[in-house]
Specification:
about 190 residues, alpha+beta, VC0467-like, AlgH-like
């Protein structure tokens, strides 16, 4: 199989699902890619919220004392992989235990230490908590790209942390200069 991105990592990029991607886990999703190598890719969906699940539930289950602000935090659906694990996509500081640095201003952490700090109101200023993540095996993401399943744009702090989750898909596509309403549901190849 020919590699669409033979030497380019999509680490730090955002993937926006095309209308042709009907998988309910990724329909109109925006996924931040945390790692992308020859062995596959991993990321977290940033625009889907678990309805009825708040920080309090997570912190109480982990027996982590939490502030009122932390108790009301939204929890994101990070993807269909490791759905029983918590991941924190965050800005500086980036040196938490079990952190995967995505770039100069972004990391993905999976440690109790960062969750405890967030619960106390002492964590990173910018963050989102997800249950689960998204994963692709070797060559799988490249194949999906060749099938026009995703649009790609460099990750940006405003899309990840400032734009309300329901607006992230549209706004990320608009950053490319594309009207999301004009996207065709039919794939084409040049």
């Amino acid at each position: 199989m020919e590699q669409l991105f033979p030497s380019t990592s999509l680490q730090g990029y955002l993937l926006m699902a095309m209308p042709t991607l009907m998988d309910p886990n990724f329909r109109q999703s925006v996924t931040c890619i945390a790692a992308h190598t020859d062995e596959g890719a991993v990321g977290v969906v940033i625009n889907q919220i678990y309805e009825g699940v708040e920080g309090r539930m997570i912190f109480d289950e982990l027996e982590i004392p939490n502030s009122p602000a932390a108790a009301s935090l939204a929890i994101h659906v990070g993807g269909p992989v490791h759905t029983n694990e918590l991941f924190v996509l965050h800005g500086p500081p980036l040196d938490w235990p079990d952190s995967l640095r995505i770039g100069d201003t972004l990391a993905l952490s999976n440690s109790r230490a960062i969750l405890e700090a967030i619960a106390r109101g002492e964590g990173p200023e910018d963050f989102l908590i997800t249950l689960g993540c998204a994963g692709w095996g070797p060559g799988q993401l490249e194949w999906e790209m060749s099938q026009n399943a995703w649009l790609v744009t460099p990750g940006s702090r405003d899309i990840i942390f400032d734009i309300p989750p329901p607006e992230r898909w549209q706004r990320a596509i608009e950053k490319l200069g594309i009207d999301p309403h004009a996207l065709s549901g039919t794939a084409g190849h040049a």
